[in-house]
Amino acid sequence: MSIALVRNRGDGKVYRYYDNVNEQVVSTVETSGAVSVVRLTMRREAAPPLHSHSREDESWVVLSGRVRFWVGSSSLDECDVHDAEAGAYVYGPRFVPHTFQPLTTAAEVLVINNPGAIEGYFQSIGSADARRDTEHTDLLARYGVVLLDNPPPA
Fold first, then answer.
1. What pLDDT is recorded for position 119?
2. Per the CATH hierarchy, to which homologous superfamily does domain 13-149 belong?
3. What is the DSSP string of 85-137?
4. CA-to-CA distance for 37 and 124, rounded, in angstroms?
5. Rounded-to-integer distance, Cα 79 and Cα 70, Å
6. Domain limits of the chain?
7. Rounded CA separation 49/98 (Å)
8. Least C-beta-crowded within 10 Å: which of 3, 10, 72, 97?
9. In this predicted structure, what is the pLDDT of residue 16?
10. What does the pLDDT read at residue 81?
């Protein structure tokens, strides 16, 4: 019997996170807390604020579109900026400030968190017509996330 998990596109639980559509590709329950993977479909206007995580490393695989990443400083203006094409892999270790935003109208990205406890935050927010991250700073803090600056302009 195989212990591998194979999850095809569309087979995971789909949920709304603000106005993004997320598919839980693999959950922390399925990996005993080791990893959480979400397929994120996002628009330019849905970029998160610049932030950092204290409990997990985060990686992204750009599946479609082009995505800009800001990393390395507590201010967007002082961050290093990197553009990632479809097929790109980006790694963001814990404590390193970052944010990202599609350069195209929309992008599809796999978001990988090691370990994966942060998925509880994403699923608890639910649907909204726009991001309201500053309304959830207490909840973010419970997951070890600190907001540092505004999101990139749309």
1. 87
2. Jelly Rolls (2.60.120.10)
3. -TT-EEEE-TT--EEEEESSSEEEEEEEEES-TTHHHHHHH-B-SS--GGGGH
4. 16
5. 5
6. 13-149
7. 8
8. 3
9. 87
10. 98
pLDDT at position 96, please?
98
pLDDT of residue 2: 55
Whether residue 52 contacts residue 95, with contact meaning beta carbons closer than 8 Å, is answered with yes
The verdict on whether omega for the bond into residue 97 sits within 30 degrees of 0, i.e. cis, is no
Cβ-contact 37, 110 below 8 angstroms: yes
Written as one letter, the residue type at 50 is: L
Query: How many CB atoms are closer than 10 A to CB 67?
Result: 26
> What are the C-alpha distances in Å from 15 to residues 18, 24, 39, 52?
10, 8, 10, 23
Helix, strand, coil percentages (3-state) for the chain, rounded to 5, are: 15, 45, 40
Question: Rg of the Cα trace of the chain?
Answer: 15
Note whether 50 and 131 are within 8 A (CB). Answer: no
Q: Which residues of the chain have pLDDT under 70?
A: 1-2
Residue 124: count of CB within 10 angstroms of its CB: 12
Residue type, 86: A
Q: What is the pTM of this model?
A: 0.92
